[in-house]
Specification:
By secondary structure, this protein is α/β, with parallel strands linked by helices. The protein has one domain: DHBP synthase (Alpha-Beta Complex). Helix content is about 30%, strand content about 15%. It has a 10-stranded mixed β-sheet with strand order 1-8-2-3-7-4-6-5-9-10, with helices on both faces. Helix 1 packs parallel to helix 5. The protein is globular.
């Protein structure tokens, strides 16, 4: 039976984080809050756990799972490089609602889906998520919903969709910001906006100088984090985030 913890209570928060970390180390799934919507996550380096996450959501490998990190150091270890603008964007907007698509470090043994050698990275601006990520390390995390359904903004909504697919639910109350993260592709010479979100084009350009837009879509009218099919298999699912 799934276990739920009220993170507004200090004792339950501590117990929940400890249980979640133990659960993740056993290659099982956890629902956690972020600064956008609730996510369902697992150890990014355990293929069976990633497969279980995809199965819980009811989607295939053609939409790879993004990765959340608790530190910039963890992020840089996962990629070949950040290019000429990645570090500046991280310094300006992490932790926060900016997802960066980078070339994955080719020495890593992981399988997030059909990524074509890329990885989508983000550091969420949420204390519970960051505490868990700093303890367990990088997590494969996607929005806590069945594929094609609206992402959960409360633990109750996540539980209705995912049930006992997740062993642990960390409840930190309703999500307050339904606008999704902005997604920027750093895999080419010029940063490219893949999805408009919380961080505006003007703010990105103030840091990087130039951002190619190529008709990047607006967030869904509901403001929810979607589970869109990427432009190509190389572009990972934008969040969770």
């Amino acid at each position: 039976m799934s276990r739920s913890y009220d993170c507004a209570d200090a004792e339950q928060r501590a117990a929940g984080l400890a249980d979640a970390a133990s659960t993740l180390r056993m290659s099982q799934l956890v629902v956690l809050p972020t600064d956008t919507v609730y996510g369902i996550g697992c150890d990014a380096f355990v293929q069976s756990a990633v497969n279980a996450l995809l199965a819980a959501k009811g989607r295939g490998r053609d939409i790879p799972v993004p990765v959340l990190v608790g530190t910039v150091r963890a992020a840089t270890a996962l990629v070949e490089n950040l290019g000429p603008y990645g570090q500046d964007l991280i310094d300006a907007f992490w932790p926060g609602p900016l997802t960066l698509i980078c070339r994955a470090n080719r020495s890593l043994s992981w399988d997030l889906g059909d990524t074509k050698g890329t990885v989508a990275l983000r550091m969420p601006l949420h204390a519970v998520a960051l505490d868990l990520l700093k303890d367990i390390g990088p997590m494969a995390v996607s929005s806590a919903n069945r594929f094609g359904q609206e992402p959960a903004t409360t633990v109750e909504e996540a539980g209705k969709q995912l049930g006992e697919a997740a062993e642990v639910y960390l409840d930190d109350g309703p999500c307050t910001d339904r606008v999704p993260s902005t997604i920027v592709d750093l895999t080419s010479a010029v940063p490219r906006l893949l999805r408009r979100g919380v961080i505006s084009e003007d703010k990105l350009r103030a840091v990087a100088g130039y951002i190619a837009t190529d008709g990047a879509p607006q967030p869904a009218a509901s403001g929810f984090e979607p589970d869109p099919k990427p432009e190509s298999a190389a572009k990972a699912d934008p969040d969770q985030d």
